[in-house]
């Protein structure tokens, strides 16, 4: 009989455990029993650590791959509620982190910290237990080590939020205990019955019950349970005397040793019981009140000959063989026998007067679990979900392993009769489909690509959720070791992509062809081959990370989880389309008509060459994001021609397409509007998504949604591409033949293009990451507490999709596996309720300082004025001022229109402050003033001038509005400042004269004069009319001249003022400032420094000529200036502070002094020197 493939009804969502923020792992070293915690100064008890790179595969397994792991869900408390625990580093480290999917309330804080406890000795396998106290909001962890010490860790929620919380708790959360029983007995299994009670199986077949004493200390009450009472206890002191044993972990275990224990107390009637399975294939039920054995029998109710007892034993490594569920005083017990092909047995447990009664629920059924395929599989774990209303309805989930590969299957059972159970058991198993996103084709280089092969590989390998950083770092270390690359050079300063490129490139060299030219093609092929080898290495490391450890059901929402060696996999419901895609042979009535075009179009596109597939995708994306001049059938025919389908799709491909369609019906005739309506319906979410009981998602839940969206996007995108290709082919070829279909396909084509555009948007959001600040933690109550030197995580790296939409995500606890799928589908459809306009997304990116991503996102932007304005902001942030200015002008008309309602509806994700928002939709002047401020902030003054002039252009000069007046003054001021900064002094002057505020005008005038003089624009300054401010200009220049000490350096303000006064015909004023400069030159000793052009000319004589020329332009009677004689050094008047005398200097006096200066210079030139004061000269 042919093996029937089970229907794929579920889909896995595999999540990495890599923290989203650095510094989120806290290492805690547990002291040995009997020792105290080291002091704060002696040793740091709690350290935020970053693990070094694993240099090889062995170190990678040791540090990152768990040998056992599971998830514990708290019963009495939430936030955090679910905890992932993993045993690492050869059994000496226990890692615990919160993995909540949702939060009870929106403002509940996430718990981002991972606690890694290091124990003094190795942890005993399967001897870790968790419990949740109803009275205390703390997670209780019980760990049994090989030194036989029991450690109790009471972890409060704050421990997972704040690294220093454990220290603030005075370390009372950690207790250790050495059971006296372990001096002569050895443990094998440990479970927590509740917060203060443990049950430990011993290797001699007995049980040890530990009860925490009152007071919550570290003392436990020890009680033994065994079959033979005291006689058995005495015999057990002589190990296994006359008993059959099984060797495991260097110990001999009695065949009656319990290897699997139901993890909580089961109350049947009013009595508490413990359900166990032992190595000898027996189900033993213990009455915990009396300490006696209440029942013992074979776990699958098979009869064994007493002579054969002990031959069939269960492996001591198996611990998940029994599950028990209570319901109104009765219990349902499910046992699994791993022997031979395996078998399940369901037991009804009911109370009786003297104990319990256990009955085979399906006595005529042999319930052998069905392996996923014909390969060799081992069932590693199972879980059961009971219907809350009907205990006879339940689902069983099985986890199968084949080396590092795993599969999950499920079966819904209704225990109404043995016949119905047998039928369901044989036919109704459903499979969990694996992720297809991990099987995406490797990058290929095509002609005309904008990216080279290295860029494509980096994008492929660094895609969010694909490989962890630790996996890539280990792969790089192995590659370096294999290629012999020197490790002495510092590499950690380089980014991860840079190091990847360096390692790949170091293995290849650029050679020459036979003709002596550089062989670039050979280098490209070698680099591509090296990337492929590196990818395969990462695949091998990642395969080890995917080994399944356990299967857990979350009781809140009944979602199954598979815990991996380094990750977790959530199991969600398949969407209707996924069910058809993964199980095409299991089609329901009518589904074949929908599946026919899906399968046929997919196979057609798979037959295309990679180059043709790339061309089709490129052309369609161009059609999506570029304004197309053609529409309707013309657009389809244009795509047909650009992709060259006429020559690229051969007759054989067309015939195969036709035959494939006819396998399901009449071929092209069956492609109708109804088929496509049904297809589009399959891609849509169900109608029961919204509800009042939606819980906001925690960080782990957001990661699950993003990863699921990546998977759905890839499937829906491929189907959209397939169908668009099919529609193009139908429009261009089929509709002109007898096979032509009788409906207008343009509407369907537009619908698929709309979906494809949405999918491309979600794909972009889910493929790019951004760093966001973490929510602020709770403040310390101590005002004297010092901040720790090494802080916890302050920022997290998430996908843009997570950053933009996570505040909208929410899930109902009812059937969470289907709710997750509905949320993912809702994200991927057009007009989704999880909507963020492209402009808002760009604002979000700009607000978090990622203009590079905002620019890359431009292709998704809308064409409305606000979107164009935001694109301009993105260009401005990316230093493309020219493009920004163009976009700002393009958006001006729409976004400047005065509309307070439109202004209130603007959404910017916090990017625009209130001031900026008020300047939009408030008229042209205010809009342009806002743009002026943006360019001024970036110091792009030429654009400030342009937009300030535009703002002034739209201001009504005759308005009496006070706001307009203030804005006009502001624009003139900004225009003036921008013109000053860009040395456009004509514009600055124009703005200056229009200032109405006298104080501001005077300040600006001073700035204008100073800047023009300092930048050598004095001649232009002199030419400026400066109407009405001549006196102010003269006064400003005069003050500048007075401030000068040495006129031979710096700005020549005396000369500038001289030119200014000459230009205004103020010759006496020019002569006065010239005389002042003459005096300062003489005081500086410039009279003895001859100029190269003429040995008899000095700066002083030149200044005399300037002075004489100025006074010569005045009427002879007016050719005088008032001179203030400076005090002589050391004179009495200078010491007493007496004001110097004024005197009149005429043109004749100046000429005499000039002649005297010439004579002095000539005498010096002729070596004539005076040795005494006065006019007498002794000639040497």
TrEMBL record:
Name the UniProt record assigns to this protein: Nucleoporin Nup120/160-domain-containing protein
A GO term, aspect molecular function = structural constituent of nuclear pore
* Annotated ranges, domain Nucleoporin Nup120/160 beta-propeller: 81-578
Q: What is its main location?
A: nucleus
Which parts of the sequence belong to the Nucleoporin nup120-like HEAT repeat domain? 841-1014
Sorted alphabetically, which InterPro entries does this protein's record hold? Beta-prop_Nup120_160, HEAT_Nup120, Nucleoporin_Nup160, Nup120_helical, WD40_repeat_dom_sf
Q: Any idea where the Nucleoporin Nup120 helical domain is?
A: 620-751
Q: Where in the cell is it found?
A: Nucleus
Q: Which UniProt keywords apply?
A: Nucleus, Transport
Please tell me the species this chain comes from. Answer: Amylocarpus encephaloides
Q: Name one GO cellular component term.
A: nuclear pore
